[in-house]
Design brief:
By secondary structure, the chain is α+β, with helices and mostly antiparallel strands. Helices cover about 45% and strands about 25% of the residues. The strands form two sheets. It has a four-stranded antiparallel sheet. It has a three-stranded antiparallel sheet with strand order 5-6-7.
């Protein structure tokens, strides 16, 4: 019995080779994480402000201490839930390129996932866009795939090395076109019938 490798992603077809699996660039999540760290410092900053400005004291066991402790627990509970939601969105969003199609898997909520796929034979144009200082320095950006179908643009957002992704998709598209174009066999020349 031959051993087969498990599929690289959900929905992979048996005769399909996965060439690239990408997530958004790590710097995108790092920016979000930095914002969450700043939000995590807000309650401490408020307490320090109240202590320094109003000479507010927090005696253990007092009503204000209990109230502040409960508020901090609720705040950080929501903080962790939101951080986990952003991590899930980052880690479960995938952009897949196979030898037959391009797949965009978007996690838009905790229980909401959208999968869009496009056959390479339908690709008309592929472009990349890198805007801004950090995307230029860290080589990430958007890849736009123009199609002939209903959804005119297929977008891979904030992927690493967008130029390489464009080259890969275009080379695969060329290979698919060559396979689909029948070889032109010249029709043998026939001599006209001789009239007697």
């Amino acid at each position: 019995m031959p051993i087969t490798a498990p599929p690289a992603f959900a929905g992979q077809q048996p005769n399909e080779k996965t060439l690239m699996i990408m997530h958004r660039h790590w710097l995108v999540f790092l920016r979000t994480l930095a914002n969450f760290v700043l939000l995590g410092l807000v309650p401490g900053a408020i307490v320090v402000f109240l202590i320094l400005t109003y000479h507010w004291s927090l005696a253990s066991g007092s009503f204000s201490f209990t109230l502040l402790s409960m508020a901090a627990v609720i705040y950080y509970l929501f903080w962790w839930i939101l951080l986990y939601g952003f991590w899930l969105d980052y880690s479960l969003d995938m952009f897949v390129i196979t030898d037959q199609r391009v797949i965009d898997i978007e996690q838009t909520g905790l229980f909401d996932r959208t999968t869009a796929e496009l056959d390479l034979s339908r690709v008309q144009d592929v472009t990349s866009e890198v805007k801004g200082f950090f995307p230029t320095m860290f080589h990430y950006g958007n890849v736009y795939i123009q199609t002939a179908g209903e959804k005119e643009r297929f977008i891979f957002e904030q992927v690493p090395n967008p130029d390489q992704v464009v080259k890969t998709i275009l080379s695969l598209t060329n290979l698919v076109e060559k396979k689909q174009t029948p070889a032109l066999n010249p029709v043998p020349k026939q001599n006209p019938p001789v009239k007697s």
